[in-house]
Specification:
One of its GO terms (molecular function) is phosphotransferase activity, alcohol group as acceptor. Pfam families: FGGY_C, FGGY_N. Keywords: Kinase, Transferase. The chain has a domain at 300-439 and 471-504: 2-Layer Sandwich (Nucleotidyltransferase, domain 5). The longest helix has 27 residues, at 479-505. It has helices at residues 46-64, 106-115, 118-125, 134-144, 146-151, 158-167, 174-179, 193-199, 222-228, 242-249, 304-314, 316-325, 329-337, 378-402, 421-431, 443-456, 465-468, 479-505; strands spanning 2-8, 12-19, 24-31, 43-44, 71-78, 85-87, 97-98, 154-156, 172-173, 184-185, 190-191, 210-211, 216-219, 235-237, 256-262, 266-272, 282-285, 294-300, 348-350, 368-370, 407-414, 434-437. Helix 14 (378-402) crosses helix 15 (421-431). The protein has 506 residues and is an alpha/beta fold. The protein is globular, with a radius of gyration of 22 Å. A six-stranded mixed beta sheet has the order 3-2-1-5-14-13. The termini are far apart. It is 40% helix and 20% strand.
Length: 506
């Protein structure tokens, strides 16, 4: 029996097919762009996601040579789709989805801060307010696009929109509902009528059917089967938000186990019983033991996106060489920075190139290169970007520790950035935690395949993930580098505090 996992990311979709032992037989990827019509705005049309999922699923089936009759099921995870896709009664998208990195809902965020007691919001939802959260983006659409607001039937998350296109079923899983923020009751595990009324969001706009991430929610229709290459009737499992599914893909089930999913952004998280919720971080149900355990995570808005920005703006020669040789431009950058000492010889980067999520929750935050001199070369700037991403990870970890969360001395790391041995070493040196890479490096799609196995009965219990996952040797922090980074980290923290008012004035 074979299982398929598909993850809709911010800049691309990846699918894998595995056997019941977790061995990957094939994988496929499709890249796409984010629409940024204004600074701090970020949108995507859902048809891009549907096409990418269907094409990559079809490709992995063909690559693997597996008979379609032997595919037990598929699960899908997705980026945090912010507001969700506003659709009409015919399930047609009314506008692009405001995705997680969209920060336009500044006025709505301020309104909530002034009109809803933070203690009340945190008590019900386990979260506070920021333009990151989907409920503020929904409020923005209401306040700024009344003609669209009149036509809305539902808000559907990215992966649930793809599930609808596969099955004609409208659902949402607990993790996706919780990550919407202000309208989900994290204790009662349902929509909060009280908060919907306070915020002016009709509760009927939210999907009625809330399910576990391992639930079978429907079956592939005849029409979808012709497009995605799966047999009509193949079970489709709910899946969840990409960050906790990636957490699962690294084998994290117990308190103290923590994982950094480092791709376009960073989502660092840990699992616990919910008795200690960190106010500055994000809290919602985990993708296994959904009704019993909470996933707490901190998210930095730009990590791999920093590297991609640098490549696109300053890496033309590496891109050309990469196209000719088949070597990734990022591998070439790694070679350039390998000999630059810790601290980039005096440069500190604030990595807030799209505002920032936790723990500062500041949509007006901006990227800063601080300490640049005529001595510095391009490689210094690139390494400083890498270090800025690591400082942001450390900041979130510290918030978790401050809230009383238990963290083991080893952090598991997954995602595209974890392919860079240089960057993984920087993460270890900056945070002081050992960094252990997951050997398969397939991240969230791997967790999806596992959820598909749970939902279809191919896998009998969540603990089996420990048998699937293989790890590389841990990367130990260099204590001398850690001393250097401790000093630089103090400047990093103070630099933001001293410039945040200027950033807001910009």
């Amino acid at each position: 029996m074979y299982l398929i996992g598909s993850d809709i990311g911010t800049q691309g979709t990846k699918s894998v097919i595995v056997n019941e032992k977790g061995e990957v037989l094939a994988e496929a990827f499709r890249e796409y762009e984010v629409i940024t019509p204004k600074p701090n705005w970020a949108e995507q049309w859902p048809d891009v996601w549907v096409k990418a999922v269907f094409e990559t699923v079809k490709e992995v089936v063909e690559k693997s040579g597996v008979s379609r009759k032997e595919i037990a099921g598929i699960a899908i995870s997705g980026l945090y789709g912010g507001s969700g896709i506003p659709v009409d009664k015919n399930m047609q998208p009314l506008r692009p989805c405001l995705i997680w990195m969209d920060r336009r809902a500044v006025k709505e965020t301020e309104w909530v801060k002034q009109n809803v007691p933070k203690e009340k919001l945190f008590e019900i939802t386990g979260n506070y307010v920021d333009s990151y959260f989907g409920f503020t983006k929904i409020m923005w659409i209401r306040n700024n696009e009344p003609e669209i607001w009149k036509k809305i039937y539902k808000f559907i998350t990215p992966k649930d929109y793809v599930i609808y296109q596969m099955t004609r079923e409208v659902v949402i899983d607990y993790s996706s509902a919780g990550n919407l923020g202000g309208v989900f009751d994290v204790r009662k595990l349902t929509w909060s009528k009280e908060m919907c009324d306070v915020l002016g969001i009709p509760i009927e706009f939210l999907p009625e059917r809330i399910v576990k991430s391992s639930d079978v929610v429907g079956r592939v229709t005849k029409e979808a089967s012709e497009l995605c290459g799966l047999l009509e009737g193949t079970p489709v499992v709910a899946g969840g938000i990409d960050a906790p599914v990636a957490q699962l893909s690294a084998g994290a089930l117990e308190e103290g186990e923590h994982v950094a999913m480092v791709g376009t952004s960073t989502c660092w998280g840990t699992v616990h019983d919910g008795s200690k919720l960190a106010f500055g971080l994000v809290n919602y149900p985990y993708v296994v033991y959904d009704t019993e355990r909470i996933y707490t995570f901190g998210g930095s808005a730009t990590t791999g996106a920093l590297a991609r920005w640098f490549k696109e703006q300053f890496g033309e020669s590496e891109t050309i060489v990469g196209e000719r040789t088949g070597i990734s431009p990022y591998q070439l950058f790694d070679k350039e920075v390998a000999n630059i000492p810790a601290g980039s010889e005096g440069i500190i980067v604030l990595p807030y190139f799209m505002g920032e999520r936790s723990p500062i929750w500041d949509p007006t935050a901006r990227g800063v290169f601080f300490g640049v001199t005529l001595y510095h070369k391009r490689a210094h700037l690139y390494r400083a970007l890498m270090e800025g991403g690591a400082y942001a990870l450390r900041h979130n970890m510290e918030e978790g520790l401050k809230a009383g969360l238990k963290l083991n001395d080893e952090c598991w790391i997954v995602g595209g950035v974890s392919k860079s041995s240089v960057w993984v070493k920087i993460f270890a040196d900056v945070t002081g935690f050992k960094m252990r890479q997951v050997a398969s490096l397939v991240e969230a799609p791997y967790g999806d395949a596992f959820l598909a196995g749970l939902g279809t009965g191919v896998i009998d219990k969540p603990e089996r993930i420990k048998e699937w996952v293989k790890y590389r040797d841990p990367v130990e922090p260099d204590l001398e580098n850690k001393k250097i980074y401790d000093r630089y980290y103090e400047v990093y923290r103070e630099l933001y505090e001293r410039t945040k008012d200027l950033m807001a004035r910009l």
